[in-house]
Amino acid sequence: MIDTHSHLYYSDFDHDLNEVIVRAQAAGVNKIITAAVDRATAEQCLDIAARFPGIVFAAIGVHPSEVSKTSEDDLLWMEAMAGDPNVIAIGEIGLDIYRGETNLAEQEVVFRRMLELAKQTDLPVIVHHRAAGMRTIEIVEESGIKRGVFHCFSEDLAYALRVLATGLCVSFTGNITYKNSRLPDIARALPLEKILLETDSPFMAPAPIRGKRCEPMHVRDVVLKLAEIHGRTLDEADRITTSAAERTFFANRPAFSL
Fold first, then answer.
1. In a domain, 257, yes or no
2. How confident is the model at residue 133, as a pLDDT?
3. What integer pLDDT is reported at residue 145 of this predicted model?
4. 256 domain-assigned
5. For the chain, N or C: smaller number of CB within 10 Å?
6. What is the structure's pLDDT at 253?
7. Which residues lie across from 169 on neighbouring strands?
8. Do the beta carbons of residue 215 and residue 24 sit within 8 Å?
9. CA-CA distance, 144 to 116, in Å (whole number)?
């Protein structure tokens, strides 16, 4: 299994990150991507990836909620660091007006710049699309980006199919296990080969631990749910989604060696 989206730099993990990684591996998770939201967290992601070589990989980018606090120097730093061997993706990037943000034009400028960085470096993207879905997919389509994921998918089936038409995948978190969630119906209608696993830890803990700290080992709950939805065995769902994640994030990457 590959947890394609976590935030291991949160203080929730300060006291037991080593144990978190051990538990993930024991659960069958062999790779974890930790995604930044700004320069400071990108630096932390790179530090964590260096601590756990071959297991944890970094995604660096500017989250839409951090755009107003991001300087030109920060963006130039991101562009310089995108070539670091531990950087596996540009993300998380995108648009967000969930809390009534009014700086959508400013968000778009940075989003487009991050997409261009992904193209220049041939890295996949991790796209955040909360409450600004239509504009987000329009910009991705215009960019010509072909590799990446719309993470923590929250739109409808028609939108998911539009994402898949670009070449990108969608991913689901523990919220696919929640009672009355509409996400299982969407996931059922999509090819398993285009679905990735993620936890978004420390957030989005699956049932029955909803509301508690999530960690990468809980990606197993997501693949168990997908196996149920698609009528597959756990091993089959694991193999198919892991292959999809490998193609998305690791296809052009040389094998890691100590």
1. no
2. 82
3. 97
4. no
5. C
6. 63
7. 149
8. yes
9. 10
pLDDT of residue 87: 97
Tokens 């080969």 belong to residue: 193
Q: Cβ(199)–Cβ(163) under 8 Å? A: no
The answer as to whether 120 is a domain residue is yes
Distances, alpha carbon 177 to alpha carbons 5, 207, 210, in Å: 17, 6, 10
Number of domains in the chain: 1
Say what the pLDDT of residue 244 is: 98
| Element containing residue 133 per DSSP (H, E) | helix 133-143
Angle at 120 between CA 79 and CA 50, to 5 degrees: 50
Instruction: Profile the chain (258 residues) by mean pLDDT over runs of 10 residues.
Output: 98 97 98 98 98 98 96 97 96 88 92 97 95 91 97 96 98 96 97 98 96 97 98 98 97 53
H/E run at residue 185? helix 183-188
Name the residue range of residue 178's domain. Answer: 2-250
CATH number at residue 198: 3.20.20.140
CA 224 – CA 231 distance, rounded (Å): 10
The answer to whether 135 and 108 have CB atoms below 8 angstroms apart is yes
Distance in angstroms (rounded) separating the CA atoms of residues 138 and 115:
13
Q: What DSSP element (H or E) covers 92?
A: strand 87-94
Residue 115 lies in a domain: yes
CB 36 within 8 A of CB 58: yes
Per-residue 3-state assignment (H helix, E strand, C coil) for 44-67: HHHHHHHHCCCCEEEEECCCHHHH
- Prediction pTM value: 0.95
Q: Is 12 helix (H, G, I), strand (E, B) or coil?
A: helix
